[in-house]
Amino acid sequence: MADAHDADAFAIEPSASGRLLCGGCAPDDVCRLGVEAAGARDRDLRFDVVCAHSWHGGPDVAHGGWIAAVFDDVLAMAALRTEPRLVTKSLAVEYLRPVPVERPLTVLARIDAHHGRRWEVSARMTLAPTGPPLATARAELRTRRPDHFARHRDWLVHRPPPHQALPPES
Ligand SMILES: CCCCCCCCCC(=O)SCCNC(=O)CCNC(=O)[C@H](O)C(C)(C)COP(=O)(O)OP(=O)(O)OC[C@H]1O[C@@H](n2cnc3c(N)ncnc32)[C@H](O)[C@@H]1OP(=O)(O)O
């Protein structure tokens, strides 16, 4: 885990239980989105996923933001096996059918192409264990430049403080 002075040392590494978790989930060693890695199948990484009811957007169906967040995680994980320092540059989701909450889902993710810092990845979500896709996603990832977070902090330091950035109330 990175310290406050060296944010660029941050890298996703296996947790105490061997999971790959984002910075928010790592301290509790559990994925709050309900994603569990479940092995590899040919070119695909397989994930067992359950949408908790608290993530519902409509009656017993998943919020689209949860679906997008799950794809962001699994697409990054597909490349994290090779490169621990990644960011998502773009993410496109197709919502094909409603996704039920509290039902086992399967997500398959794969690397489609990798050249230098650029990764193209894709994934599909089905009702477990197989079936027609409920949603699919494509993303472009970038290997972080070594000073990615330092540049961000430097950029932020030169923004106006929040109370000055807000327009005055009329
Ligand atoms: C469960 C285990 C795994 C789960 C982990 C979860 C991971 C999920 C992954 C994520 O969700 S990461 C969070 C979402 N993504 C981001 O925050 C990325 C934000 N975007 C960027 O940092 C840049 O756009 C990006 C590095 C993707 C750009 O890379 P490029 O190689 O295409 O472009 P380039 O480096 O030339 O920079 C393009 C512009 O961005 C600016 N830029 C790049 N890096 C920057 C930086 N670090 N700080 C500030 N500005 C930055 C850069 O100055 C330039 O500005 P201008 O267009 O004005 O010239």
Automatic annotation (TrEMBL):
Coarse class of the protein's main subcellular location: membrane
**Is Chloroplast given among the entry's keywords?**
no
Which Pfam family is one of this chain's hits?
4HBT
Q: Where is the Thioesterase domain?
A: 61-126
Any GO BP annotation: fatty acid metabolic process
Recorded GO CC terms: cytoplasm; membrane
Q: Give the enzyme's main class according to its UniProt record, as a single word.
A: hydrolase
Name the Enzyme Commission number(s) assigned to this protein: 3.1.2.2
Q: Which GO terms describe its molecular function?
A: hydrolase activity
Q: How does it sit in the membrane?
A: Peripheral membrane protein
Location in the cell reads: Cell projection, Ruffle membrane; Cytoplasm; Membrane
Catalytic activity as recorded in UniProt:
dodecanoyl-CoA + H2O = dodecanoate + CoA + H(+); (5Z,8Z,11Z,14Z)-eicosatetraenoyl-CoA + H2O = (5Z,8Z,11Z,14Z)-eicosatetraenoate + CoA + H(+); tetradecanoyl-CoA + H2O = tetradecanoate + CoA + H(+); (9Z)-octadecenoyl-CoA + H2O = (9Z)-octadecenoate + CoA + H(+)
Q: Which UniProt keywords apply?
A: Apoptosis, Cell membrane, Cell projection, Cytoplasm, Fatty acid metabolism, Hydrolase, Lipid metabolism, Membrane, Transit peptide
Name the InterPro entries for this protein.
HotDog_dom_sf, THEM4/THEM5_acyl-CoA_thioest, Thioestr_dom
SUPFAM superfamilies linked to this entry: Thioesterase/thiol ester dehydrase-isomerase (SSF54637)
Presence of keyword Zinc: no
Q: Family per UniProt?
A: Belongs to the THEM4/THEM5 thioesterase family.
Q: What is this protein called?
A: Acyl-coenzyme A thioesterase THEM4
Q: Which organism is it from?
A: Streptomyces melanosporofaciens
